[in-house]
Design brief:
Blueprint (H helix, E strand, L loop, with lengths): L2 H4 L3 E6 L4 H12 L3 E11 L13 E7 L2 H10 L6 E12 L6 E9 L5 H12 L4 E12 L14 E7 L4 H17 L4 E12 L2
Antiparallel strand pairs: 1-3, 1-4, 2-3, 2-8, 4-6, 5-7, 5-8, 6-7
């Protein structure tokens, strides 16, 4: 992994298991200058992604970070029995002002990698959805004490969206499902990996 890849900004999703390592990591990230925002979230994995991440749990720490290299070091030090996910953003599709706080982050994968033109089309479709505050393309790394039986084949084709809405998590999830269907109608195969409902902002 090159130095440039390690310095991408992005999101990290670490299992919150109410044990010493989870609490230590939470306290570290609250005081870290590398962490811009920190949330306590519920993670819901799609039926398509569950076979790859059968050790998934319900509650996670979700952090928005500036530098991926520091996150890698944090997760090596606080490696756990459940998988941690790091989503590094290579291409910021857009970010805009939004009313209300971010209350949902949805992560997808593109099954065919898609071309630059396809990425533009995806960005344009996501832009039409006014509740989407940020969208980016990136890649995923995982950390776990016990490696998964199956290798996730789409780690290099990740799409991340942040949604700002005052509505319920269930309502926002439906909104994200509609968005995914809009993209798929254009012949682009975008599949949900995990939906993250924000329960509390810790930083």
């Amino acid at each position: 992994m090159s130095e440039q890849e390690l310095t991408y900004f992005g999101y990290v999703c670490a299992p919150y298991l109410h044990n010493h390592k989870s609490i230590e990591l939470k306290d570290q990230w609250i005081s870290s200058k590398n962490i811009e925002e920190l949330f306590f979230v519920t993670g819901t994995f799609s039926n398509e992604s569950k076979p790859y991440f059968s050790d998934s749990t319900n509650h996670y720490l979700l952090a928005k970070f500036k530098n991926g290299q520091q996150i890698t070091e944090d997760l090596i030090k606080h490696n756990q029995e459940k998988t941690s996910f790091v989503f590094r953003v290579k291409e910021d599709l857009f970010e805009r002002e939004s009313t209300g706080d971010t209350n949902f982050v949805s992560v997808y994968y593109l099954e065919y990698g898609e071309s630059g033109e396809d990425h533009v089309e995806i960005a344009n479709l996501l832009l039409k959805k006014d509740k989407i505050h940020m969208a980016g393309l990136g890649f995923m790394d995982t950390f776990c004490k016990t490696p998964s039986k199956f290798t996730f084949p789409y780690s290099d084709n990740i799409v991340i969206i942040e949604v700002s809405s005052e509505k319920s998590h269930q309502s926002v999830k439906k909104y994200c499902d509609e968005t995914r269907r809009d993209v798929n109608r254009k012949g682009l195969t975008m599949t949900n990996l995990v939906s993250l409902s924000i329960l509390d902002q810790l930083k």
